[in-house]
Amino acid sequence: RMMEEIVLLETKKAQPKKEVFKLKFAVGEFDMVVCDPENVTSELYEIKHSVEAVPQQYRHLVDEQKCKYTAFRFGEIIRKSVIYRGETKKIGEIEYINVEEYLNELW
Q1: CA angle 78, 26, 6 (to 5 degrees)
Q2: pTM score
Q3: With bands split at pLDDT 50, 70 and 90, how would you rate the model's confidence at 79?
Q4: DSSP class of residue 57?
């Protein structure tokens, strides 16, 4: 939970013109949504404590209904990523980003 809070806080501080928040659904949630109201786009993130990349981690990112709702409400989805403690890589359309690299790239 602490890692999630750090990522959310640092993202908010680094991107003050964007809205950064957690989006909850009846079943599941996006750990972080970064919404750019100026360009009407959004980025979806799951934040995991694992060093391993497994499909269960991005199940909400590929949920058609959740993505459709989010795109309608917050703009076109331009990025779907899992922030975790493992190596940065891409699996299909999902980016896996090392948490330290993510935080360093914010600034």
Answers
A1: 55
A2: 0.94
A3: very high
A4: G
